[in-house]
Amino acid sequence: MALGVDLIRISRIEDLIRRKGLSFVQSMVASKASQPETLAGIFAAKEALSKALGVGLNRSILREAEVKKNHLGKPYIVFRHRVYDLSISHDGDYAIAFVSGDSHVLLEREMVEKLPPRDTKGNKKTFGRLAIVGGSSSMVGCMTLAAEAGLRTGAGYVHLYVPSEIKEILQIKTTEAIVHVLDDPTHLGNYEALAMGPGMERPIPKLMEEITERNRPVVMDADGLRWLKESTFFPKQLIVTPHHGEASRLLDVSEEEIGADPLSYAKKISKKFSCVCVLKGAPTYVVYLDRIYVNTTGNEGMGTAGSGDVLTGMIGAFLAGGASLWDAAVAGVYFHGLSADEMTRTIGRRSCKAGDIVEGLKILFREVEQWGKENEK
Fold it and tell me: How far apart are CA 58 and CA 240, in angstroms?
């Protein structure tokens, strides 16, 4: 465990305030504090954090790291959704800060509370059945990623409905999922939630009519969105997860127009299809009519093939577990991005692939369980 230490003269901050102004120093350390000794302590804390992380003090740490206090008044520092132990002391003209390199994931209470409850006496039936429809000969991996994400997110069962030519491959690649051939939509078994679209290339006649009549929660992505646009049947409990290109096709506008005002177009999609719209991007917007959530987790490492399939599986699993459409969508994008943040700490953003985001879920949900134990005390 690395330890970062920094010592600074408070008079240096006072001199900087005289020469540059208070607002300059506040902007420099990203704090609204006005007392020189407080500002000095914050600067020392961020310098100590950079040393604990083994990097030089940089703009990202100065701008993004936040010094906070818990309910007992103990300080800590938050950087990129992780919490680091912090001690700050003042003596005469000096402020000193110690930061431990040991850290844990910062979890937002509101997001944890959106997760479906986990009964300690529950089993695979009570944790929900997720059906995923999609796949093609050239996109087997999409279904694998969605299935693995659904299982890692807590679904009791994951059933894959795929073309016959890839059934055997998926039975080998996804050990825990149950694989079916779907040539007729009436062959869909029982499920609590359905995900549609990962890797799907061909339409399935009357599928939209069938899932609409069942009135179960549905999350649609990728080519599922193409069939949604062409269908006269819309599921009544629907989440759609387009990126900007898919949104442009849903609304018949250019991708550039979507990028110029993504929130406005997310609202239009939500209204047109009477659904929760997850418009993926930086940032990702979740919209249901006038209800809006702007996600703050995630990074450019998520810009890789299959990342959207992971999100689809996660949202589907939350729905299967009993979460509402809104909670499933918001929790999905939050934990999806948080997993990417967690994994890219160690593997780097350039090297991140979709499977790494699935792996990160193991870390996150372990932390969620620990968070729950601590908050029961």
Answer: 38
